[in-house]
């Protein structure tokens, strides 16, 4: 990593699972941890969901620290393996740092209420009822798709391209690609439209057609808002995050490896 982390100024956050709490107890036998307010970096124990929760917590507090995750969950795509708690300092000294810029979302509900949120993985629009959604897609002020009839549509960052985006048959994006994945969810019309890969400088807007008959919700990572009229998205460079990975287990390597998984 660029710049050595002071191991005497590490914060520790653990999910409430038995596995994560046991790992936290082991680490506390070897290190004295401090509060987030005094920390130079944070060690995160849990799965990808808890890592996302932690990153959002730091964004909300305005205290964004380098985060080193150790997997005590299921997939652990954003995490390192949990092992050798006594060697945490050595692992941090060798860790590679990766910068991730989240999406900034402005969502406008049918009653005019506005909501601002950040998404590290993706922002997805989803139909609320049995009726398919009808969504207009606008890129940099120009309508590119007048009406997408679908279950939904999502915009994913490279870090999130192997999550919901991949399940919806979207492309996997290398971390340094400076691209975004625009992916339909169960498209009905145009049936053959499979989405688009966009420059990350793009400003993407979604406008909901026939919202009274076909209501749509929006989800930015873990935050959901219902009865949406419009959603506006762009990369939030001012909210850049730093994830730390062991050599050979970095996020860019995992993104490449995922494309050869069978």
TrEMBL record:
Its EC number is 2.7.1.23. It is an enzyme of class 2 (transferase). It catalyses: NAD(+) + ATP = ADP + NADP(+) + H(+). It comes from the Bacteria. Its main location: cytoplasm. The active site is at 48 (proton acceptor). It is found in: Cytoplasm. This is NAD kinase. It comes from Tsuneonella deserti. Its cofactor is a divalent metal cation. GO terms for molecular function: kinase activity. Involved in the regulation of the intracellular balance of NAD and NADP, and is a key enzyme in the biosynthesis of NADP. Catalyzes specifically the phosphorylation on 2'-hydroxyl of the adenosine moiety of NAD to yield NADP. HAMAP family: NAD_kinase. It holds the Pfam family NAD_kinase_C. PANTHER family: NAD KINASE (PTHR20275:SF0). Keywords: ATP-binding, Cytoplasm, Kinase, NAD, NADP, Nucleotide-binding, Transferase. The gene is nadK. Gene3D superfamilies: Probable inorganic polyphosphate/atp-NAD kinase, domain 1, Probable inorganic polyphosphate/atp-NAD kinase, domain 2. NAD(+) binds at residues 48-49, 53, 121-122, 151, 159, 162-167. Belongs to the NAD kinase family. The lineage of its organism: Bacteria, Pseudomonadati, Pseudomonadota, Alphaproteobacteria, Sphingomonadales.
């Amino acid at each position: 990593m660029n710049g050595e982390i002071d191991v005497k100024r590490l914060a520790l956050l653990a999910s409430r699972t038995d596995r994560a709490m046991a790992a936290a107890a082991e680490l506390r036998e070897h290190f004295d941890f401090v509060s987030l307010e005094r920390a130079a970096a944070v060690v995160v124990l849990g799965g990808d969901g808890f890592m996302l929760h932690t990153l959002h917590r730091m964004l909300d507090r305005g205290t964004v620290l380098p985060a080193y995750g150790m997997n005590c969950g299921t997939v652990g795509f954003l995490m390192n393996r949990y092992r050798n708690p006594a060697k945490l300092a050595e692992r941090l000294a060798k860790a590679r740092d990766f910068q991730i810029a989240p999406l900034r979302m402005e969502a406008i509900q049918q009653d005019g209420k506005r909501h601002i949120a950040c998404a590290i993985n993706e922002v997805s629009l989803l139909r609320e009822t049995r009726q398919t959604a009808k969504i207009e897609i606008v890129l940099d002020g120009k309508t590119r798709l007048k009406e997408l009839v679908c279950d939904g549509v999502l915009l994913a960052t490279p870090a999130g391209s192997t999550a919901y985006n991949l399940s919806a048959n979207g492309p996997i994006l290398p971390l340094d690609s400076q691209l975004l994945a625009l992916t339909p969810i169960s498209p009905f019309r145009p049936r053959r439209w499979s989405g688009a890969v966009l420059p990350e400088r793009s400003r993407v807007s979604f406008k909901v057609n026939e919202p009274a008959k076909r209501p749509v919700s929006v989800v930015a990572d873990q935050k959901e808002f219902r009865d949406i009229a419009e959603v506006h998205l762009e990369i939030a460079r001012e909210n850049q995050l730093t994830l730390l990975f062991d050599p050979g287990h970095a996020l860019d390597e995992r993104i490449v490896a995922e494309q050869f998984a069978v």
